């Protein structure tokens, strides 16, 4: 009951959206499933990217490099799978590449105390350069990651085919939101993470190793960024293109802010972004409105500006985010 009272606006909005979605489904089930499936397809990398940001910023470290981490994950996963003709190897390498980029950010900012914004920008620039320089056309993988139906859940009208008849990374993205919410607010790790993100000096006084926890969290969060990239190249398209992250890392940061650094709210925000783009595409495909494709591509970035303007002054970031910690200060 306490959780419902704190989140009554979000719960009420979710209930209204669900009622509207099922009303639409009753009118035209085929278009409804198609639109919402495409919305989730667009939202998956945003959800994973936002979770990277949640872990980092709740620990006190800003991660501007999510975009670069995604791009490297897409590149490493696809070309590892192409070289070995194994999608399993591709997924593992994609995740490990995300860890490597996360470790660079963690050690350069937490230990080396490099400015966190600059470190993130460096990751993005290096990722763009490496993936462009070593790109080879003509490479193929045996197949994309397969879709499968979750028993019972996939049979639920509308929700089942949208969320539970998907590939493994998309299903993982849905699960990790609820897992991370539980870990952040119901476990000792979560309490310590929030402590070092809000009051690192007090956490240090209480015996928490602030530097070690930040190093672990930022590095481990890289797995999610690597999987987001792997999703783009191996589950969504089965190919790699230069710059295929296409600003999704920056959109994930906007979603993180709009979601007030909470996993479940960030999921809702990502679904909103995905649905708005899906709606624009459906309106164009149905000849309801004549929207140039360039404006549809522009829509996520316009929404980002609107969301950030709406969130300004309404949400509060963790108190110590972006601030280096020096023991003894």
Task: For the structure shown, list the relevant keywords.
329 residues; 14 helices; globular
Nutshell version of this structure?
72% of the residues lie in helices and 1% in strands.
Strand order of the largest sheet: 1-2
Based on DSSP secondary structure assignment, what is the total number of beta strands?
2
What's the overall average pLDDT, rounded? 88
Give the fraction of residues assigned to helices: over 70%
For the sheet with most strands, the description reads: 2 strands, antiparallel
- How big is the Rg? 20 Å
Encode the helix/strand succession as letters.
HHHHHHEHEHHHHHHH
As residue ranges, the low-confidence spans are none
Number of helices: 14
Euclidean distance between termini CA atoms: 40 Å
Q: How much of the residues is beta strand, in percent? A: under 5%
What's the shape? globular
Fold and architecture overview:
This protein has 329 residues and is mostly helical. The protein has a domain of 202 residues. The protein is 72% helix and 1% strand. Helix 2 packs antiparallel against helix 3 and helix 4 crosses helix 12. The longest helix has 30 residues. The radius of gyration is 20 Å and the shape is globular. The N and C termini lie far apart (40 Å). The mean pLDDT is 88.
